[in-house]
Each structure stands twice: as structure tokens, then as C-alpha cells.
């Protein structure tokens, strides 16, 4: 992104003339050789434009899991603001007013786009906007930015943020994130013609568990069908950790199409940048029991009835070793069993639960819960790990890694299905407490369809 700065006479750099093509002309030289340009302005004072890498305009890098590598944001060295067909203009749905704090390449482009294609009122305090945008009724240039607007219909683009998306609703965000949300498809197309593609695929990392896969595959399908693209999986027969044939044995996933080829299938160049968009994240978790094959669902229903019958059950989900060793931070930080215990005790006493169904991959968490709640606790029989069993920075447990007897696939499938059994049983419980935000907990809520008598998710900080 290019920022507007005062003219620096001491800087030795190329001079460009102010024109509608100014930023595109500069980007053709960036970042190969030029990061600063003087701009000759026939309508006012000369100024400079200075390039800043988009990866520097995001939340702190240490908030990302250890296994994620930069860059975390698209650079946009090429884009076409006039190609409306490939812009996600739905981002502006429900917006009546747009306010931005800093005049830069992205707020200038978005202002021109909004004024030409919508009835949104735009407010800024930098008179230099008139170098780039003609005066008109919907553009308000004033010293003081308005502060009393309806937040539900306001798009507020801040200069500096602690995170790129400050409010979680994509209504208050940074310039980079605002631009990225609108130009998301152009980043994927990278200058290619949309009409040449019928399918799209997203690389799903090898560490992805069943919760992440089921959560995102359905979102991909819904998101990209807006542009007439069908989501398909292309690869070596694996999706995340799992063989596609294993997934389709238990889940009703439409992952392949005979017509899909390298020539007609777009490849999303980066998963993390995709997750920073309302285009994807604005889609609610829409998974329900239809994602299960009928045989698998019947098997799990039978298991639940055998375990609990008509008993009143509190479901508790505690994530532990896998989140710690994966380096999860930020809003993925989990509460400990000790932090969760007072609320569990309170609910057992208040609501009279007969049993506590515990889902955890952590041996220490299981041990603590059994000592604290005794015979109330029921847990699936499965392999569990302690943090001390794992080496630092290891993502997959030894249980999931291939071993000498060649039983990797069988054991991984057992692990997957046991884990999914746990998610499904949690969804059938009367109430649910989870240790924090994770894909598994989202699946539990989706299957339950908001029928829990009581629900509590521990927040970041676990207070």
C-alpha cells in the first residue's frame, strides 16, 4: 500500500505526474526497485507516495500459530478497480456511511469505488482527497470526523489498529483489510480472466483436523458460488491429515468433479489471507446432521442412547496439548480445567446434571476432571497425551505419526472417528461448556442448532 507523505526534497527518487493511473504506475516499479516517488501535482502542492508492505499492517505476527509462515496478507501489486465483476461489492451491503482516518492508496481507491457505484456517504478530514476525487454531494471533507453515527451502518477505516479487524464484524478495520475484503477475488485471479474458470480449490494444510475441514469446506462452497465457482479438492488423495476416501466414508462431502482440471480450476494462493475476509468469515457455521452419512449418524445415536439414555448430561470440552504444542495464541487461547471447574460445579448443583460427558485429548485434563468430579465423568476410550510427552513445536502427536508397524492410517482414522463421536455426543447434551474458541466447538453448536439449555465458552484470558 502507498501512503501519502510530505514532499521530501532530500530523497532521490523518480518523479511521477498525478493522474488516475498514479498508483498503478508506481506499483509496476514496486517492490523491485522503487519504494518512494515524488508526485508532480498541477492542482496543488507536490507530495510523495511511499510503499509499505501489507504484511506490516496486520495484527502482531506473534499472534499467529507457530506453524503458519508469512506473508499473512496479499500484497496487491496488481488490481483493477474498474473490473466490477470481480469485486466483492457485497462487502458494502448495509453500509450508509464510510469514514476513514488516513488518506492513502486504498482509501482513495475505495472512495472512488463507493462514490461511483453506491449511495454511501464518505467522510474524511484530508483536503488532499480532492487531488484524487472530484467534489460531489456524497463526499464530505471536514476537519472533524463525525463521532455519533450508527455503528451498525458505519464502515470505519482506522489508521492504526491493534488488529486488522477490530470489532469482529468487519465494520471497523484497517485500510489494508478494507481493501482486501473488496478485492479478494482479484488477488486470487492475479490478472487472469474469471470466465476461464469453473472451479476453485483451497490448499488445506496437512495439520488440519476434522473440525477445521468440515467447518471450512462448507464455507468455501457457499462463498465461491457467489462468483459462479464450485469448490473442489485437488491433491494427492488427502484432505488435511486424512484420506479423501476415509472422509467420504463417514461424511457427505462433495469434494470432486470429473470436469475439474488445472486449466479451469483457480487455486487460492494463501489460506490465512482468505480467513481475513467477511466474504468467508461472514458465513455462519452451517453444518448440520446432513453432513453425516446415515449409517454413521445411526451408529453414533445408538452409542449415545447406550451411554446416557434419558439422563441429564452436561457436555464439557477441554482442549489442551494439541493447542499448546501448535503455538495457538490470541483468541485461540484455552482455559485450563482448573479455571473451568468452578462453573462446572455451579451448573451441576444448579441444574442437577446426572453425568458430565468430557471431550479432551489431554491426559492431564482427564485426570483432573476425574479427581474433581468422580463418577459423574464419562469419556470416550481413546489415546490421550500429556504435554510432557511431546517435543517442543511438534504439531502432530506421536500417535498420529507413521510408526514401524505401518498402522498410521488405521490409527489416524480411529483417532478421527473417536474425536467426531465426542463432538456429536456433546451436541446431544443438555448444556455445553467449552474451554475456548475452536472449530470443534463450532461444529458442536451447529449440530445442536442452538438447543442447549445453557452454553458457555471461555474467552481469551480465561477469566
Fold and architecture overview:
- The protein has 463 residues and is an alpha/beta fold.
- It is 30% helix and 16% strand.
- It has helices at 22-27, 105-117, 175-189, 210-224, 244-250, 271-274, 278-281, 294-308, 321-325, 337-351, 363-373, 408-428, 439-448, and strands at residues 2-6, 15-17, 36-40, 47-51, 97-100, 121-124, 139-141, 154-158, 172-174, 199-202, 230-231, 238-239, 242-243, 265-268, 313-318, 355-360, 377-379, 431-434, 454-457.
- A 5-stranded parallel β-sheet has the order 7-6-5-8-9. Strands 17-16-15-18-19 form a 5-stranded parallel β-sheet, with helices on both faces. A 4-stranded mixed β-sheet has the order 1-4-3-2.
- Strand 12 (238-239) and strand 13 (242-243) form a beta hairpin.
- Helix 10 runs parallel beside helix 11 and helix 12 packs across helix 13 (439-448).
- The two termini are 38 Å apart.
Low-confidence stretches: 391-408
Please report which band the strand proportion falls in: under 5%, 5-15%, 15-25%, 25-35%, 35-45% or over 45%.
Answer: 15-25%
How are the strands ordered across the major sheet? 7-6-5-8-9
Distance between the termini: 38 Å
Tally of individual helices: 13
Structural class: alpha/beta
The best one-word shape is elongated
Main sheet attributes: strand count, strand direction, barrel closure: 5 strands, parallel
Radius of gyration equals 26 Å
The beta-strand count equals 19
The whole-number mean of residue pLDDT values reads 85
Q: Roughly what percent helix?
A: 25-40%
